[in-house]
Amino acid sequence: MLRQLKFNFLAVLFWVLSYCIFACVCIRMLQLHFNFLHHVFMNNSQHDHITINDTSYTLLDVESLAWKKLVNGSVKKKNGFRTMCVGTISEKKTAALRIVVNRKVDEIQKIIYFNTDNRSRKFYDLQKDNQISLLFYDARQRVQIVVKAYATLHTNDVLKLDRWKATSPQARLGYMTLEPPNTKSEKPTLGYEERFSTIKPTDSESDVFQENFAVVACVVYELEFLYLDFTGNRKANFYYENNVLKDGFWTVP
Ligand SMILES: Cc1cc2nc3c(=O)[nH]c(=O)nc-3n(C[C@H](O)[C@H](O)[C@H](O)COP(=O)(O)O)c2cc1C
């Protein structure tokens, strides 16, 4: 009887110990796996960080920070990232640049949106070649963000309609020019009816011009973050595939 009890106890002990060892091995393997992934994808070590305004940022933190700054720019009118310089490839294969308003940033999908006139040169350029570059710089934050993306043009869908509805009467004037943007004129011109220099167009007056309005969605595949600091500048580059961060590393500023 005593021997049987002792045997049972040892058997239970054996199984408990085996289970514990198995669990420990599994946990360690998972740890190693995640450390490996983190290291491989981010080429990063725990001690790799930079300090911005007394806050420490790892490489992954910098990536999140960049998107947070872009989101802030899209929602805060006075933020330095509210506007961006958009680069397209012109018909003559030269770099074509202009400023637009950062209207919306989807940090999950890695998409940056702006509105434009579908008769404009940038729209024409993007129809021919949808590669687009976006340049942001906020002197107050001393941060530059350069983005490369593929543009998707929305001219006649729910997104375009929603964005048009959300556009103010003042902003709609930009789409109410009788001739396309950049058309030669004999004298200085507003492009739209002179009376709208003093009164706002009504919804029905502006809705007629909705067909000129388009939304450009820029699907980001590359993001460069540069922080200017008197103790030394810092830079990191990030690369995305299908909205997923695939690579990132610190670079020489
Ligand atoms: C502060 C600022 C904001 C602007 N925002 C926009 C905008 O959101 N969308 C746009 O199409 N043009 C905007 N423009 C005008 C463009 O810079 C540009 O002159 C116009 O779109 C024609 O460009 P394109 O002929 O190269 O296509 C803005 C200009 C400035 C200075």
Automatic annotation (TrEMBL):
Domain Pyridoxamine 5'-phosphate oxidase Alr4036 family FMN-binding: 66-151
Entry annotated with the keyword Membrane: yes
Domain of life the protein comes from: Bacteria
Transmembrane regions: 7-30
InterPro entries named among the record's database cross-references: Pyridox_Oxase_Alr4036_FMN-bd, Split_barrel_FMN-bd
SUPFAM superfamilies: FMN-binding split barrel
Protein name as annotated: Pyridoxamine 5'-phosphate oxidase family protein
Source species: Flavobacterium caseinilyticum
